[in-house]
Amino acid sequence: MAQARTTTAATTRGAVDAREARIGSGARIRGRIQGEGDLVVEGHVEGDLALRGDLTIAEGASIAGDTVEAASVTVAGSLDAEVTATGPVRLAASARVRGNLRGSAVSIEDGARFSGRLDCEFDLPPELGGSSRGEARGRPAARR
Amino acid sequence: MASTVIGAGITVEGEITTDEDVVVAGTVRGKLSAKEGVAIEHGATVEADVVSGSLVVAGSLTGNVTAIERVDLQSGARVVGNVKAARVTIADGAQFKGNVDMEV
Fold first, then answer.
1. Per the domain annotation, does A12 fall within a domain?
2. Is residue A75 part of a domain?
3. In this complex, is the C-beta atom of A14 within 8 Å of any C-beta atom belonging to chain B?
């Protein structure tokens, strides 16, 4: 009871979910961010980021660092870093990304600007096998 | 709703600067500067100098505090550092070591 009252008062503007993490649009962080849980960045981060949850970079937000690691990464803002995701990486139409991307899947929407390397493991459909690189290259050629 | 929330599982090492509110439920090491209110929740750890409009502490804070309006140390708070603000309250059950400067 006393505990609940303390928490409510401490947030000054009502209850905040402790699992929630957000860098507001007026905020700038210079340094390293790490931890568990999801993070939404609406402001500006200069530094590295290592998350065990999902990372969302909102439109108008920016991250500039050496490395960004997260379970999944969704970018609608600006990102300048080497990105490693255990899950998918999505670049929305408003995204501007410089750096290499690694994820279980990568999607780039029409309008997104991206300059870097894509590192993504997937199986090519058979109809694309002939023009692809890597493992898939040998099989269709042999079939012909 | 606060503009910036450092969640319970999150650690920030460095400098946070904002013209809005900040709620810390996780860990912050470095420097924390906000034009509006800063709330350090129960269970949070802040090892940083804090400059803000106002400050409410229910967690652990090590560092010097300068607030324009007020500083409230709630029950369960643990604060080591100097506090400078026009209004300061220290609740029963709060631990505090440092100087208070109310600019009198």
1. no
2. yes
3. yes
The pLDDT of residue A1: 37
**Does residue A57 fall inside a structural domain?**
yes
The distance from CA A115 to its chain's CA centroid, rounded to whole angstroms, is 15
Low-confidence ranges of chain B (pLDDT < 50): 1
Cross-chain CB nearest to A3 (options B4, B6, B42): B42
The pTM of the full predicted model, rounded to 2 decimals, is 0.82
Q: List chain B residues with CB under 8 Å of A7.
A: 41-42, 58
Return the pLDDT at B63.
Answer: 97
> What does the pLDDT read at residue B69?
95
Tally of structural domains, chain A? 1
Are the C-beta atoms of A31 and A47 separated by less than 8 Å? yes
Would you say B20 and B36 are in contact if contact means Cβ atoms under 8 Å apart? yes
Q: Which residues pair with A75 in a beta bridge?
A: A57, A91
Closest among B101, B7, B49, B86 to A18, alpha carbons compared: B7
- Dist. CA B20–CA A18, nearest whole Å: 19
Q: Would an 8 Å CB–CB cutoff place B69 in contact with chain A?
A: no
Assess if residue A144 is contained within a domain. Answer: no
Nearest one of B88, B31, B80 to B55, comparing CA atoms: B88
B38: tokens are 């800063």
Quick one: average pLDDT of A92-109? 94
**pLDDT mean across residues, chain B:** 95
For residue A80, give the nearest of A35, A22, A54, A41 by alpha carbon.
A41
